[in-house]
TrEMBL record:
Coiled coil: none annotated. This is RNase H type-1 domain-containing protein. SUPFAM superfamilies: Ribonuclease H-like. It holds the Pfam family RVT_3. Residues 31-106 form the RNase H type-1 domain. One of its GO terms (molecular function) is nucleic acid binding. InterPro entries: RNase_H-like, RNase_H-like_dom_plant, RNaseH-like_sf, RNaseH_domain, RNaseH_sf. Gene3D superfamilies: Ribonuclease H-like superfamily/Ribonuclease H (3.30.420.10).
Length: 148
């Protein structure tokens, strides 16, 4: 490479193809993603329930307030599971870009007593308060049935 010196930073662009595989017959998929605005530590999440032919059954989103990305992922998983349960779905596959959130959500019972701070435990940031997690009920979850 012409005019390149030792220590120069070179950016390499790579194309990555991603495909979606729907859940197995008899299952629905819960897909959750968190948003974190680093300037002021605001968090939120959104999610979707899909059936075996990739049809979106219901979508949801919520602004939470201040917190960590992990907290937002856990809250999204929690509310997505509750929404699925309320819609009579029992075989649910959880997907998130946070493997830690999925694994933590499997170890803590999901229900009225669920407190994401308990799931996070020592992973909480020092400045986060354990009792600052939003309560499960009443929750103000924006859910929309998606029409074809």
């Amino acid at each position: 490479m012409k005019n390149r010196k030792d220590g120069d930073v070179v950016a390499i662009k790579a194309t990555r193809y991603v495909s979606y595989t729907p859940p197995l017959s008899g299952f629905i998929e819960l897909n959750v993603d968190a948003i974190y605005m680093g300037d002021d530590n605001h968090i939120g999440y959104g999610g979707v329930l899909r059936d075996t032919i990739s049809t979106c059954i219901v979508g949801f989103s919520k602004f939470v307030g201040k917190g960590s990305v992990l907290l937002a992922e856990l809250l999204g998983i929690r509310d997505g599971l509750i929404l699925a349960w309320e819609n009579k779905f029992r075989n649910i596959v959880r997907h998130s870009d946070s493997l830690m959130a999925v694994e933590l959500s499997k170890r803590v019972p999901i229900g009225p007593e669920f407190n994401p701070a308990t799931a996070i435990g020592p992973l909480n940031r020092p400045e986060a308060k354990r009792n600052s997690c939003p309560p499960l009920f009443p929750r103000q979850l924006e859910a929309k049935k998606l029409e074809n």
